[in-house]
Amino acid sequence: MPPTETKNRSILKSVKKFSPADQLKQSIRDFLVEVGQVPDEDIEKLIQEVPHKWERHGDLIIVPQRSLKDESWKLFEKEVYERICQTLKINRIARKNPVNPNSYRSSNVELLWGDNGIVQHTDNKIKYQWDVTKCMFSIGNITEKLRIASFDCSNEVVVDLFAGIGYFVLPYLIHAKAKHVHACEMNPASVEALKGNLKSNNVEDRCTIYFGDNRTTAPTNVADRVNLGLIPSSELSWETACRALKDETGGVLHIHANIDSKTPKTEQSNCINKPQFKYPEWELWTNYAVSSFEQMLSRLKSRKWKVTFLHLEHVKSYGPHVDHVVLDIECRPIVM
Q1: Which of 119, 210, 213, 307 has the fewest CB atoms found within 10 Å of its own CB?
Q2: Do 250 and 147 have their domain in common?
Q3: Is residue 122 in some structural domain?
Q4: Contact predicate 245/227, CB 8 Å
Q5: Are the CB atoms for 207 and 173 separated by under 8 Å?
Q6: How many domains does the chain have?
Q7: Digits of tens for pLDDT over the chain (336 positions)?
């Protein structure tokens, strides 16, 4: 009996387990062969466009930008989309596209199959709802949301200059227990989603929303902490962040940025390369930001300020040689 069991286990191990992506490609390949409208030499080219990964939100998936782009798919897109839905047990399909180059970097996700792009998602017991075709949401930012959740902001007023649907606003309110959050956002679809998310999480009474460009709408002299969650750069609103800080006590800034790590060696030689900086470019950018904020605060608030480096958080790799980081700095007026 034992030898037989060992043999059976060996046989089972030798049977290949097909991933959902493998099953999907096989199903589409079988369909293309069956309909007979695509030459054999073109079938494999089309199969290369069948997605092998996707972002899932309930019954909706978002496939990569290059998926299902060939004009040939239009000949039988209904049948192909139905096969995808059946294989992956979903009802809606959307495709990524480059972020809209407008002033608020709105979503450019394209709905391929289904009635609407509204989805729900829960992160760390926080409920979010938004339309993927109109609003941005990055699952890759979960580490930063968890970091914010670990803060103690119970006696603090927070200003979020790029609130979106509330991906950082809600952790500040629900887990960090911020006294109040002033949320600035200029995408009307995101503002509506933010209102709904504040209500569904029962924290709408501790948040004020400012619709429009934060450079003209953000409150001044109110913040103990300011969040600047825009990438690739939030520098267009650095002065706004300075004005938002309390004049008498200052506070902490969390500055998001994408840093390119391919700086020429001539510039790298100027870096001390401290242990907390993985690449010299991170230190170069940190020094630039600290110096810039110290100068801006002294100019805008008519007194000397001291800006101190606290921490540089690596959120995620954004692309080859590009990293999404968050710089934490403390800004305090110098008492003469």
Answers
A1: 213
A2: yes
A3: no
A4: no
A5: yes
A6: 2
A7: 455 554 555 544 444 578 999 999 999 999 999 988 888 888 999 999 999 999 999 999 999 999 999 999 998 999 999 999 999 999 999 999 887 766 666 778 999 999 999 999 998 999 999 999 999 888 778 999 999 999 999 999 999 999 999 999 999 999 999 999 999 999 999 999 999 999 999 999 999 999 999 999 999 999 999 999 999 999 999 999 999 999 999 999 999 999 998 754 444 445 545 556 888 999 999 999 999 999 999 999 999 999 999 999 999 888 888 999 999 999 999 987
Domain-located, residue 288? yes
CA dist., res. 156 & res. 227, Å (int): 13
Q: Where are the beta strands (DSSP E) in 23-160?
A: 55-57, 60-63, 92-95, 110-113, 118-123, 126-131, 157-160
Judge whether 160 and 137 are in contact, CB under 8 Å: no
Phi then psi for residue 328, to 5 deg, are: -100, 125
Domain CATH code at residue 38: 3.30.300.110
Rounded to whole angstroms, how far apart are CA atoms 24 and 51?
8
Region of 36 on the Ramachandran plot (φ > 0 left; ψ -120 to 50 alpha; else beta)? left
Last residue of a domain, one of 84, 116, 148: 116
pTM equals: 0.86
